[in-house]
Amino acid sequence: MTRKSIVVALIFALLFLVPPIGNATGETFLVSMVTRFVIYALAAVSLDLVLGYGAMVSFGHAAFFGVGGYVVAILGFHMDMGDTLFGWAGTSSALIIWPLAMVVAGLVGLVMGALSLRTTGVQFIMITLAFAQMLYFVLVGLVQYGGDDGLSITSRNIIPGLNIDNDATFYYLCLVLLLVWVALCRRLVNSPFGMVLRGFKQNERRNVNLGYAPTRYKLTAFVISAAGTGLAGALWANYALYASPDMASWLKSGEFMAMIVLGGMGTIFGPILGSAVYLGLEQVLTAWTENWMLFLGPVLVLVVLFSRRGIFGWLIGGRNND
Amino acid sequence: MTDKKPKLELRNLRKSFGALAATDDVNLTVYGDEIHALIGPNGAGKTTLISQISGEIMPDSGQILLDGKDITRVPPYQRAAVGLARSFQISQLYKDFTAEDNVAMAVQAHTASRFNMWRNARRDASLREPARQALAKVGLEHRANDLVSSLAHGEKRQLELAIALSLNAPVLLLDEPMAGLGAEESMLMKDILAGLKGQYAMLLVEHDMDIVFALADRVTVLVYGHPIFTGTPEEVREHPEVREAYLGNE
Questions:
Q1: Residue A233 and residue A128: Cα distance in Å, rounded?
Q2: Which of A53, A63, A300, B126 could potentially form a cystine with A135 if both were Cys, beta carbons 3.0 to 4.6 Å apart?
Q3: Is B54 helix (H, G, I), strand (E, B) or coil?
Q4: Class in CATH terms, B1-83+169-250
């Protein structure tokens, strides 16, 4: 076993042990807290796929998070009203709604990516930000669905054989989904497709010269990333029983990015740590002061200064070019 | 020369940047098995010409033909597939990949698996074997698993050539493969190229006249974007205009 696989095994072992630890110590809020870590980690891992491997600095990933959340919330809303949506009676089955959230987020990603990928660098950052802000204001404008205030959700989606109203069960479900998604992403970045994606980050000119058309590869990765973030949004709506335009705000996009930088860009595993450290710090520090960002800032600066690949890079140590 | 069929043809190629005619009515033919050297003083437009052939720069007018087919408007990412491989004057490598990874990128570019998202690219023998063979061809197999960032300049030049070879393209555009090499390394590169002679149509941009005269079947002299003379190395050596323009009157 390499040091890297030990670190990864430890991260997941620890995450799997949280509910029993919470039970034993009587700290019941623990499960709720790590559920947030895991859901955000799913979004951050997805963003890392394009940001860390494809050098596509998307400042608009909250849009997909919001889309995922609103798919759950809007379907729930119509179920509660007992009416139909586009002639569809609706469903509360997670097995339909969650994949649907991924598909819708992926489609939004397809449109946003197809237009944004005509640019690179700073323009790409700004155009993805602009798209996400557009979606944010569309959500604010959906008066039927609560507008600014967002939508409450009466109950979680249903999975046959699982009672996800139980917080520990819901947590384990999120964790397993994260595990599966991480495994898929690792598979992807090590595949021939993934090598091409990483090639665009390192030397686009060489990549084009070898015969790789940029848009085809980048857009595919962007859509996959959007779908993963959409799933995270759907999970969040189930967790919080609430979806609001804030899910799609640029602050959320910034949070995802901060998690990646903190945990380790271009590592897939790093953003899981990033999410835990970011939200953990928020949890601890907000008890002290509402200006908790004041402390997060220096932590980010230190991590960036002392480790090229964030906390994960520092944990696995040594020369690591993945 | 046995293969008298033109492989690569440039017809009346022109490209201007503002008032500067970087490529001025260039006609040039490279045959299927020859090494065709392109020489000329600094700023003569040699790299600009190579960039037009490889599709990075679009000419203002004129035609580029490969096997008689017009490829002037073929986008740069399809040039390798139609049969043009290019090496760069300033090495264009993936610095966070190993030498073998770099070559494997060229190998997978012309396979169906390049869009595969499932298989592990680094454990795929169908990509790794050809990559290793190409590294062996340029004498770099002992560095296969080293990161590009740890390679010496000369080794990067060898790797650059291995990548171009791995595209399996019949035409090689070699933009100063000896750039920045010491005398010994240049000789090594010369031997490598000599060993490839006859297998590819090569357009070779080179400064070192000894190497040009040793390798080339024919030489084109480019001055201010215009080819002033094409002929065998001996003819070029004796040509008064060329001596004046480029070689200097020693």
A1: 18
A2: A63
A3: coil
A4: alpha beta
pLDDT above 60 (res B159): yes
One-letter amino acid at A175 equals L
Phi/psi-derived region of residue A142, left when phi > 0, alpha when psi is between -120 and 50, beta in every other case: beta
pLDDT-based confidence at residue B165 (cuts at 50, 70, 90): very high
Q: Which residue ranges make up each domain of chain B?
A: 1-83+169-250, 93-167
- Candidates B86, B93, B116; nearest CB to A192: B116
Rounded to a whole number of angstroms, the distance from the CA of A145 to the nearest CA of chain B is 38
Contact B78 A196 (CB under 8 A): no
Q: What is the pLDDT of residues A78-93, one digit of tens each?
A: 988 888 777 777 788 9
> For residue A244, what pLDDT is reported?
97
Interface-testing mutation among A190, A205, A210, with chain B (most B C-beta atoms within 10 A): A210
Q: How far is CA A182 from the centre of its chain?
A: 11
Range in A117-131, B20-34, B96-110, B230-244 the model is least confident about: B230-244
Q: Is A103 left (phi over 0), alpha (psi -120 to 50) or beta?
A: alpha
| Model pTM score | 0.94
- Closest residue of chain B to A266, computed from CA coordinates: B96
Contacts with A208 (C-beta within 8 Å, 6 or more apart), sequence order: A214, B76, B77
3-state secondary structure A35-67: HHHHHHHHHHHHHHHHHHHHCCCCCCCHHHHHH
Output the pLDDT for position B250.
45
Residue, of A172 and B240, whose pLDDT is higher: A172
Instruction: Give the total residue count for chain B.
Output: 250
Contact B60, B16 (CB under 8 A): yes
Q: Report the CATH fold assignment for A3-316.
A: ABC transporter involved in vitamin B12 uptake, BtuC (1.10.3470)
Helical residues (DSSP H) of chain A, grouped into ranges:
3-25, 29-54, 62-81, 94-116, 121-141, 167-190, 192-202, 204-210, 214-240, 250-263, 270-286, 293-306, 310-316
Strands of the sheet containing B6-17, edge to edge, are B20-31, B6-17, B61-66, B69-70
